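Why should sequence recovery work at all? Because a backbone constrains its sequence more than one might expect. Tight turns favour small or flexible residues, buried strands favour hydrophobic ones, and helices have their own preferences. The token representation captures these environments compactly. In the example below, the structure is given first.
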């Protein structure tokens, strides 16, 4: 399979379908096949991947099944730049971050942390594209921030390192299963990441929203 893993294939297709739903709104299977140029099997696999991560909701309209991004993912899509896609991102060096007037050293520190987080996400994305699973130490070194601080920030974005055995050693890595999620986050600039984290924290304080009309593929 030319070095490609199951995770990278399904993760790539999930990113394509996520982008299609982000740009075109709710769609059925036939629409997604037409928009993405994926086969029906590939679309189903991508939807299964996204459904497992609670990124999409399914609604029945007559006999048709219509898929759309979950409320949380829709917020993510709204924050992302209009010309950015999870599959084709400019490097952090070529992208200009929006300038904001920081108030005091605390605001400046927060801005620097978001810039470092963005660098870490870009690095992890590059490693995933090369079918490698980076360690927290590698990502934190690239970002120029402590591994614990980076881990705490990434966990707020639903990305957590996992412990695996490599030979006789046990190490922590960011699994390639997060590839689609990292692509989504890499579409944001530092300001967008901060707003996303703030929105997530606000949602946690308000508590989970329940709806009998919307459910994930695996409910």
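From this structural description, the recovered sequence reads:
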């Amino acid at each position: 399979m030319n070095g490609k893993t199951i995770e990278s294939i399904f993760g790539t297709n999930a990113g394509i379908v996520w982008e299609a739903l982000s740009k075109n709104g709710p769609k059925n299977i036939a629409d997604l096949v037409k928009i993405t140029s994926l086969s029906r099997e590939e679309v189903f696999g991508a939807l299964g991947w996204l459904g497992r991560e609670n990124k999409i909701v399914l609604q029945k309209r007559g006999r048709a099944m219509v898929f759309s991004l979950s409320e949380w993912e829709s917020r993510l899509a709204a924050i992302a730049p209009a010309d950015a896609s999870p599959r084709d991102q400019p490097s952090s060096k070529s992208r200009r971050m929006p300038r904001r007037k920081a108030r005091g050293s605390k605001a400046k520190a927060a801005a620097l942390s978001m810039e470092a987080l963005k660098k870490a996400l870009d690095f992890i994305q590059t490693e995933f594209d090369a079918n490698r699973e980076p360690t927290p130490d590698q990502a934190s070194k690239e970002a120029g921030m402590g591994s614990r601080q980076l881990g705490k920030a990434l966990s707020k974005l639903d990305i957590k390192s996992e412990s695996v055995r490599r030979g006789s050693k046990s190490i922590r890595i960011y699994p390639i299963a997060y590839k689609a999620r990292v692509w989504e986050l890499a579409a944001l600039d530092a300001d967008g990441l901060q707003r996303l984290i703030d929105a997530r924290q606000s949602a946690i304080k308000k508590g989970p929203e329940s709806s009998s009309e919307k459910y994930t593929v695996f409910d």
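A few observations help interpret the result. The chain is about 55% helix and 10% strand.
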